[in-house]
Recover the amino acids of this structure.
């Protein structure tokens, strides 16, 4: 899945109409940002907390991942909001979910509320940005230790465990486990609960290839409130997105790849309709 050539950055008004509010996704491989450049951007853009966290990593690989993820967040939010990267104020909920602090007069590029969610794994950062609602995203690369997969599987609902175990061990089973895992993370991150929401209290039933067929929500939620999207934008890199269903007839996702140096032309994907609870 390729993205066409970047367009020039323009300082004009926000390109979208208020009625059409796309979900924006940025998938950025670490390789898209050379370490020296990531270091310079971080030096100029990070707040005290980010500098402190970046300084705590034991392994250079983990530090690099953090620098790419957090410069991606600041750059993409700055483009979307019309603010300067270093001036974005990001705060965290008591459960660790980051939020962009709203500005009293609204955002320079329109609207007053942006939500975002970040995930990083296997050398990729995934950022989701949306206006006026919530978003949760997750990215996972295939290639996990079989023992780690079995541990993950024990946290799932019984029907999900059965479905995953129907696949032969190896790539096919790993794919099933990680498809479920990314969707569960995306949903719990959209709700801001992270791992605080037990993963056996809700479940997905999935098509063999791709796509959510059914969603059994936790006791305090309704299946029809959510839309889910599964993608594999790069072979063996699985992505899941969860957003509230909203009222738009055909909401869509704009997928951008690489580091957002400038505005670029995205790959446009329709968001699937909400699904009901699976039948037993
Ligand atoms: C959110 C959480 C599920 C992330 O899981 P993960 O697969 O390791 O990491 P991902 O790369 O997908 O996502 C990490 C990002 O999610 C975001 N995030 C953190 N807490 C979040 C929450 N409660 N809800 C939504 N997003 C959250 C952050 O941006 C984080 O990246 P950052 O710390 O570099 O800013 C997990 O860290 C979590 O639940 N944290 C909350 C604290 C908690 O319950 N800890 C118990 C540990 S057993």
């Amino acid at each position: 899945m390729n993205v066409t050539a970047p367009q020039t950055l323009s300082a004009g008004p926000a390109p979208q109409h208020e009625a059409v509010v796309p979900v924006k996704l940025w998938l950025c491989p670490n390789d898209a940002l050379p370490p020296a450049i990531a270091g310079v951007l971080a030096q100029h853009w990070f707040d005290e907390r980010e500098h402190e966290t970046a300084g705590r990593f034991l392994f250079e690989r983990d530090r690099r991942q953090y620098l790419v993820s957090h410069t991606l967040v600041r750059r993409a939010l700055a483009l979307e909001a019309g603010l300067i990267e270093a001036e974005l104020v990001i705060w965290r909920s008591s459960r660790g979910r980051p939020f962009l602090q709203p500005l009293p007069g609204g955002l320079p590029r329109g609207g007053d509320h942006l939500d975002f969610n970040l995930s990083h794994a296997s050398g990729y950062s995934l950022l989701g940005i949306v206006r006026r609602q919530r978003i949760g995203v997750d990215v996972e690369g295939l290639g996990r230790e079989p023992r780690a997969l079995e541990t993950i599987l024990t946290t799932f609902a019984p029907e999900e465990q059965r479905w995953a175990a129907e696949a032969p061990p190896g790539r096919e089973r790993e794919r099933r486990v990680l498809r479920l895992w990314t969707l569960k993370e995306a949903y719990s991150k959209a709700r801001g609960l992270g791992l605080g929401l037990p993963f056996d209290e809700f479940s997905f039933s999935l098509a063999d290839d791709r796509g959510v067929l059914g969603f059994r929500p936790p006791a305090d939620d309704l299946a029809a409130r959510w839309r889910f999207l599964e993608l594999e934008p790069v072979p063996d890199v699985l992505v899941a997105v969860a957003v509230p269903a909203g009222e738009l007839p055909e909401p869509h996702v704009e997928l951008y790849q690489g580091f957002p140096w400038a505005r670029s032309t995205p790959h446009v994907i329709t968001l699937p309709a909400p699904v009901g609870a699976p039948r037993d």
Remarks:
- Residues 69, 95-98, 117-121, 138, 185, 189, 192-196 surround coenzyme A (CB under 6 Å).
- The two ends are 36 Å apart (CA to CA).
- Helices lie at 35-45, 48-54, 60-81, 146-154, 158-165, 171-190.
- The longest helix spans residues 60-81.
